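Morning. Coffee machine broken again, so started the prediction first thing and wrote up yesterday's gels while waiting. Chain of 183 residues, entered below exactly as on the submission form.
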Amino acid sequence: MREAGTREFTFTDEDFAYIVEMVKRHTGIKLADHKRNMVYGRLARRLRELNINSFRAYCDFVEADASEQELVNFVNAITTNLTGFFRENHHFDDLKELLQSKITSPPKNKRIRIWSSASSSGQEPSSVALTVNEAIRNVDQWDVKILATDIDTNMIETGRRGIYAPETAEKIPENYRKRYTKR
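Came back before lunch.
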């Protein structure tokens, strides 16, 4: 049994620095020093699951895995997935206003392309889609594509399914919720 306040695994400054470098190299994310405890907690789960006894050994395992499956697990463990329908609602109001101002006369090219990066489980790009649908009359006559991307494969799969807990819909404006969602 561990003493109160001791950690299950040793986590040195060198371990943290190496993990920060790995995260930057594989994802482009720069982890700040204050993320140290978060990194420990998230990766300690992987060490336990794999029965690996040190962070250095885990990093070596990730780097040596030719299938790159553990790299996927590493990235999924490190990423933060803050998401929600109509999160920071003013952005969607601005998008609706922008679309309506740009689509005042019949355009020659009825194409709209929107990229939603860091889409997590898909609630933001779904909110974009609802906004586009409401902003453009006869949207079905337009070629609209929304590209939703994320580096966490678990979140992408959730977004692909498009099934969310009922309480997540509370932030969807009521008129949208009635028209576009099902229980």
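The chain is about 50% helix and 5% strand. Going to sketch it on the whiteboard this afternoon.
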